[in-house]
C-alpha cells in the first residue's frame, strides 16, 4: 500500500512538472492582462525544437535553448498581434495553436522523414534522472527510505527546476517592482500608464517570461519525459495547465497545488485502468481524466469557491489621449 | 465625404483580400522552406479541388462542414460571444445523429428518419452549448474557458461511450455498426441521377443543401428579426443593449443554443452522410476551422459560404498535394489555416491604418486634380 502510494506520487511529480511550468507561464501573461490559450501551441513547438536540436547536435542543453527560443518567438507573435495591433488575444492564441500542430509535423517530415516524428534520442541527448546524494544508502530504510530514494530523488533536473520556479515566480510577481507593474497592467492598465510606464512593454516582457517557461515545459516533454518528439505530443497539457492556473486563482502556490492535483489524477487514472475497486467497481478511466476540466468549470462557476481573474484580462489596452 | 473613413467596398472586399493575400504569401515562404514550389503546389491544389467532378464533390463535402461550424461561430460572434466549443458541440451533435440512426434505421424510411436526425443533431449540439451559456449568463464564468473545457469533456465522453457502450461485441476498433443503407443521406451523385445528370461518386450529400438553407435562415434571423436585432445590438454594445431593454442573460442562452445547434448539424454530413457509422474523432478539427471561416467570412452568411468554399478547396487540394509532393501532407493545410486565422483575425487591424492612409492620399489627389481642372 505504502509503496503503491509512493509510486503514484512519484508519477504525479513527473506528470505535473510540465503543467507547473506551463501554468506559471500562463500566470505571467494572464496577470499582465493577456489571455493565454496558446500555452498548448508554444509547448508543442518547444517540444519539437528541443527534440530536433538535441537529435542533430546531440546536446540536450542546446535543445533546451532552441525550445526557449522558439517559444519566445511565438510569444512575440502573440504579442505583436494582441498588444501592438490590439487584435483579439483568443484568436491569436487559436492561430498559434494551429500553427504549432501543422508546422511541427510539416518540418519534422521534411527534416527527418519519419512521418513527423524526430529520431529517438539516446540517453546522452536527454535529461536523465539524477540520484541525489545518499539516496542509494537509505533506500532500504523503512518508510523514509522509499520516500527519499523513490519520491524525492531520481528525477531529472527539469522537475526540480519546475518546483523551484514556484517560489521564484512568487517572488518576481509579488515582491519586485516589475511584478507590481505586471499585476497593475492586468488590473488597471490606465493607472500604469498614468504613472508613466508603458503598458505594452510590460505585457511584452510578461509574454517573453511566459515564452521562456513554456519553452522549458516543451523541452521537458520531448527530451526528459520521452525520448523524442511525436506529433501532437502536448495532447492538451497546455489546456490542463490553463485549467490549473484558473484552479489556483492566478496565484503561484495554489497553482502548484492545482497542477499537482491534476497530475495526481492523471497518475491515478493510469494505475486504475481496468482495476476493480471495492463498492464502486471499475471506474472508467475517462471519468478521472475529465475531472480537471469539470473541477475547473465548477470553480469558474463559483460552485466550489470562486475564481476571479485579473480585471483587465483579455482587453487590449488603448492609450487615451 | 469624411477624410478619415474608407469606402465600404474597401472594408468588405479589399481588406479581407489583403489579409488572405498576406496569409498565402507567408504560407508560400513555408512551402519554399520545405522545398516545394508554391505556385506548382497551388496549381495542384486548384486542379485537385476543382478540376474534375469527384474533386468538386469532395470540396463541397468539406465545405458543408465548414458552413455549419462557420455559421455557429458567426452567430455567437454577432452577439459578442466567442464560442470556441464548436468541436465538442459537433461531436455531440454527431452522437445524436448516430444514436437516432442506430435506434430507428430498421424501423423508419429515410424521409421519416431525416427530421428526427436533424432534431437530435441540433438538440445534442445545443445542449452541449447550454451549460457554458448558462454559466456565462448567470454565473459569470468566461465562455471561452468553459467551452474549451467542454471540448475535452465531450471527447472523453465519446471515448467512453464508443469503447464501453457502442462498440460491437468481438471487435477491436471502437466503431458502432454501419447504419442501414436506408438511413444514409442521399449522396449528391444519386440526387443528380434523379434529374438525369450523371455526376462522379463523392461523399457530397444532401446535407450540403441543408447547410445552404441554414445560411438563409441565419441571414433572416440576424438581419430580419427582432431577435437578430437584439443579438447584433448586444454584439456591438452590450451596455447600450441592456439600456435599451434587452435581457442579455436570456439572449446569451438563446444565441448559444442556436450556435450549438448549428455546430451539431455537422453530424448530418459527417455521420449520416460520410461515415455511416459512429466512430471516434470524426470532427477532426472542423470546429476550429469554423473560427477561420467565420473570420474571413466577416460574420456574414454569404461570406461564410465563400470562405467555406475556400477552405473546401484547401482541404481537398491539400489531400491531393501528398500524392505529388513527398515532402508535405495535409498538416501543411493546418499551417495555411493558422496563418489565415492570424492575418484575418488576430492581425485584422494591422492593415486598416495603412489602407486608410492610401485612400486618404488618393482621395486628396483626386480632389486637387478636380480643383485644378475646374480652375483651368
UniProtKB/TrEMBL annotation, chain A:
<feature type="transmembrane region" description="Helical">
    <location>
        <begin position="253"/>
        <end position="270"/>
    </location>
</feature>
<feature type="transmembrane region" description="Helical">
    <location>
        <begin position="227"/>
        <end position="246"/>
    </location>
</feature>
<keyword id="KW-1133">Transmembrane helix</keyword>
<keyword id="KW-0762">Sugar transport</keyword>
<feature type="transmembrane region" description="Helical">
    <location>
        <begin position="290"/>
        <end position="309"/>
    </location>
</feature>
<keyword id="KW-1003">Cell membrane</keyword>
<dbReference type="Pfam" id="PF02653">
    <property type="entry name" value="BPD_transp_2"/>
</dbReference>
<feature type="transmembrane region" description="Helical">
    <location>
        <begin position="60"/>
        <end position="83"/>
    </location>
</feature>
<keyword id="KW-0472">Membrane</keyword>
<dbReference type="InterPro" id="IPR001851">
    <property type="entry name" value="ABC_transp_permease"/>
</dbReference>
<feature type="transmembrane region" description="Helical">
    <location>
        <begin position="6"/>
        <end position="27"/>
    </location>
</feature>
<feature type="transmembrane region" description="Helical">
    <location>
        <begin position="204"/>
        <end position="221"/>
    </location>
</feature>
<keyword id="KW-0813">Transport</keyword>
<dbReference type="GO" id="GO:0022857">
    <property type="term" value="F:transmembrane transporter activity"/>
</dbReference>
<feature type="transmembrane region" description="Helical">
    <location>
        <begin position="90"/>
        <end position="112"/>
    </location>
</feature>
<protein>
    <submittedName>
        <fullName>ABC sugar transporter inner membrane translocator</fullName>
    </submittedName>
</protein>
<feature type="transmembrane region" description="Helical">
    <location>
        <begin position="34"/>
        <end position="54"/>
    </location>
</feature>
<feature type="transmembrane region" description="Helical">
    <location>
        <begin position="157"/>
        <end position="174"/>
    </location>
</feature>
<dbReference type="GO" id="GO:0005886">
    <property type="term" value="C:plasma membrane"/>
</dbReference>
<keyword id="KW-0812">Transmembrane</keyword>
Amino acid at each position: 500500500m505504502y509503496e503503491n502510494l509512493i509510486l503514484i506520487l512519484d508519477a504525479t511529480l513527473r506528470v505535473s512538472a510540465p503543467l507547473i511550468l506551463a501554468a506559471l507561464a500562463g500566470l505571467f501573461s494572464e496577470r499582465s492582462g493577456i489571455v493565454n490559450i496558446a500555452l498548448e501551441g508554444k509547448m508543442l513547438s518547444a517540444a519539437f525544437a528541443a527534440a530536433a536540436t538535441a537529435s542533430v547536435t546531440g546536446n540536450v542543453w542546446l535543445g533546451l535553448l532552441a525550445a526557449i527560443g522558439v517559444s519566445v518567438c511565438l510569444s512575440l507573435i502573440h504579442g505583436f498581434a494582441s498588444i501592438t495591433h490590439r487584435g483579439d488575444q483568443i484568436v491569436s492564441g487559436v492561430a498559434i495553436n494551429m500553427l504549432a500542430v501543422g508546422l511541427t509535423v510539416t518540418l519534422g517530415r521534411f527534416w527527418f522523414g519519419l512521418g513527423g516524428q524526430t529520431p529517438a534520442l539516446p540517453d546522452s541527448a536527454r535529461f536523465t534522472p539524477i540520484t541525489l546524494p545518499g539516496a542509494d544508502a537509505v533506500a532500504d530504510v523503512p518508510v523514509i527510505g522509499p520516500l527519499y530514494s523513490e519520491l524525492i530523488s531520481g528525477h531529472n533536473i527539469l522537475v526540480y527546476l519546475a518546483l523551484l520556479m514556484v517560489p521564484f515566480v512568487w517572488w518576481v510577481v509579488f515582491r519586485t517592482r516589475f511584478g507590481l507593474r505586471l499585476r497593475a497592467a492586468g488590473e488597471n492598465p490606465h493607472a500604469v500608464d498614468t504613472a508613466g510606464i508603458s503598458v505594452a512593454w510590460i505585457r511584452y516582457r510578461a509574454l517573453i517570461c511566459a515564452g521562456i517557461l513554456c519553452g522549458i515545459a516543451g523541452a521537458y516533454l520531448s527530451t526528459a519525459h520521452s525520448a523524442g518528439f511525436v506529433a501532437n505530443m502536448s495532447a492538451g497539457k497546455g489546456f490542463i495547465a490553463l485549467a490549473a492556473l484558473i484552479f489556483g486563482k492566478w496565484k503561484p502556490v495554489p497553482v502548484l497545488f492545482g497542477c499537482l492535483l491534476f497530475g495526481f489524477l492523471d497518475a491515478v487514472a493510469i494505475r486504475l485502468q481496468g482495476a476493480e475497486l471495492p463498492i464502486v467497481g471499475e471506474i472508467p478511466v475517462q471519468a478521472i481524466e475529465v475531472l480537471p476540466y469539470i473541477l475547473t468549470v465548477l470553480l469558474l462557476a463559483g460552485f466550489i469557491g470562486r475564481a476571479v481573474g485579473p480585471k483587465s484580462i483579455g482587453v487590449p489596452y488603448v492609450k487615451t489621449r | 465625404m469624411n477624410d478619415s473613413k474608407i469606402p465600404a467596398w474597401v472594408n468588405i472586399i479589399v481588406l479581407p483580400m489583403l489579409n488572405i493575400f498576406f496569409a498565402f504569401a507567408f504560407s508560400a515562404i513555408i512551402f519554399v522552406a520545405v522545398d516545394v514550389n508554391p505556385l506548382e503546389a497551388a496549381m495542384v491544389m486548384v486542379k485537385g479541388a476543382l478540376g474534375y467532378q469527384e474533386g468538386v464533390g469532395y470540396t463541397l463535402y468539406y465545405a458543408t462542414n465548414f458552413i455549419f461550424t462557420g455559421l455557429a461561430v458567426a452567430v455567437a460572434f454577432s452577439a459578442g460571444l466567442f464560442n470556441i466549443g464548436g468541436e465538442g458541440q459537433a461531436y455531440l451533435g454527431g452522437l445524436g445523429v448516430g444514436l437516432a440512426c442506430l435506434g430507428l434505421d430498421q424501423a423508419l424510411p429515410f424521409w421519416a428518419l431525416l427530421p428526427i436526425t436533424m432534431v437530435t443533431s441540433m438538440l445534442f449540439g445545443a445542449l452541449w452549448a447550454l451549460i457554458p451559456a448558462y454559466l456565462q449568463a448567470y454565473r459569470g464564468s468566461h465562455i471561452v474557458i468553459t467551452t474549451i473545457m467542454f471540448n475535452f469533456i465531450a471527447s472523453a465522453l465519446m471515448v467512453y461511450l464508443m469503447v464501453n457502450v457502442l462498440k460491437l461485441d468481438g471487435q477491436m476498433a471502437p466503431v458502432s455498426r454501419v447504419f442501414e443503407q436506408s438511413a444514409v443521406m442521399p449522396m449528391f451523385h444519386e440526387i443528380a441521377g434523379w434529374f438525369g445528370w450523371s455526376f462522379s461518386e463523392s461523399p457530397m450529400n444532401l446535407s450540403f443543401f441543408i447547410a445552404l438553407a441554414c445560411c438563409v435562415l441565419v441571414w433572416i434571423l440576424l438581419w430580419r428579426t427582432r431577435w437578430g436585432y437584439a443579438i447584433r445590438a448586444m454584439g456591438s454594445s452590450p451596455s447600450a443593449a441592456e439600456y435599451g431593454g434587452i435581457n442579455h442573460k436570456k439572449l446569451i442562452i438563446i444565441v448559444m443554443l442556436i450556435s450549438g445547434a448549428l455546430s451539431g448539424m455537422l453530424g448530418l454530413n459527417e455521420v449520416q452522410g460520410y461515415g455511416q457509422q459512429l466512430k471516434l474523432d470524426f470532427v477532426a478539427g472542423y470546429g476550429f476551422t469554423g473560427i477561420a471561416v467565420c473570420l474571413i467570412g466577416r460574420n456574414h452568411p454569404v461570406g461564410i459560404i465563400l470562405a467555406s468554399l475556400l477552405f473546401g478547396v484547401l482541404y481537398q487540394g491539400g489531400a491531393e498535394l501528398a500524392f505529388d509532393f513527398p515532402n508535405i501532407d495535409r498538416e501543411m493545410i493546418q499551417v495555411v489555416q493558422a496563418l489565415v486565422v492570424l492575418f484575418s483575425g488576430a492581425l485584422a487591424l494591422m492593415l486598416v491604418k495603412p489602407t486608410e492612409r492610401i485612400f486618404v492620399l488618393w482621395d486628396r489627389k483626386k480632389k486637387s486634380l478636380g480643383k485644378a481642372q475646374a480652375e483651368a
